[in-house]
Amino acid sequence: MARLSWTSGPSPSRRSRKRHVVRALREQGRYGPGLRDVLPAFAGLLVAVCAVAAVLAAGYRAAGIGVPVAGVVVLTLVVTAAIRHGRPGARRRLGFYTADELLELDTQELALAVARMLRRDGWRVRLVPAPDRPRLCARDAAGRRIDVAFRPVAEPLPDEDVPHPHPHRGDQVSPLRLVVHRGVFTDRDLRWAHRERTIRLLDGPALRRWAAGARLNDLLSQER
């Protein structure tokens, strides 16, 4: 008597099932990088390690054991600093934010983030606390001043004062007024800012470039 079989064909092997799962994950973008993706970075790291080893060996032959020891110490300090600064908290304290981190900030936290970015660019910053509309006053080494406001729209409301209604003592030029908005300014906002010679608008895309490391002066020069 022939033995009955519960399957209609040969069962797939473990290797073929694994290939099928890997193919499905790659199509969904969830499998991670392949060898060809990480090979250039690995080759670059290998070349860098070989170059450092060659430099240390040349220093040892030229000046003795002190050169490689000093080189190892310096490399250790550099790697430690890079790891420490690469942590999210340390990175944000230095004034670097990701786009997702900017979206998670409320108005007060956004004001703190912008203050850190200004300090990163060499400005001395003072935060003017307010429950709904915080403001920043900043000054650089050249004596230029900038007042920063945070609003959903650029044009002031009737009951809204400018950041500094009275000029500072000894200042001959009005400070630059910067309006930060995580979204996109409307045409009405742009027309209002164009009428005011001391107004600059910083929208969401420019804010993200600033948070990623661009300098504020470069961003503002692109606006005009």
Would you kindly provide a written description of the structure presented here, covering whatever features stand out?
Helix content is 52%, strand content 11%. Strands 1-2-3-4-5 form a five-stranded mixed beta sheet. The protein is built from nine helices and five strands. It has helices at 14-28, 35-63, 66-86, 88-93, 99-103, 107-120, 187-195, 204-212, 216-223, and strands at residues 124-128, 135-139, 145-150, 176-180, 199-202. The N and C termini lie far apart (91 Å). The relative contact order is 0.07. Strand 4, helix 7 (187-195) and strand 5 (199-202) form a beta-alpha-beta unit. It is of the alpha/beta class.
Q: Which overall shape is indicated by the principal axes computed on the Cα atoms?
A: flat
How far is the first residue's CA from the last residue's CA? 91 Å
Mean of all residue-level pLDDT scores: 76
- Radius of gyration from CA coordinates: 28 Å
User: Helix/strand/pairing class, anyone?
Assistant: alpha/beta
Q: Helix count, per DSSP?
A: 9
String of helices and strands: HHHHHHEEEEHEHH
The largest pleated sheet is described as: 5 strands, mixed
Residue stretches low in confidence (pLDDT < 50, at least 5 long) are: 4-9, 158-171
The quaternary organization reads as single chain
Strand ordering within the main sheet? 1-2-3-4-5
Number of strands: 5
**% residues in beta strands:** 5-15%
| Share of helix, binned | 40-55%
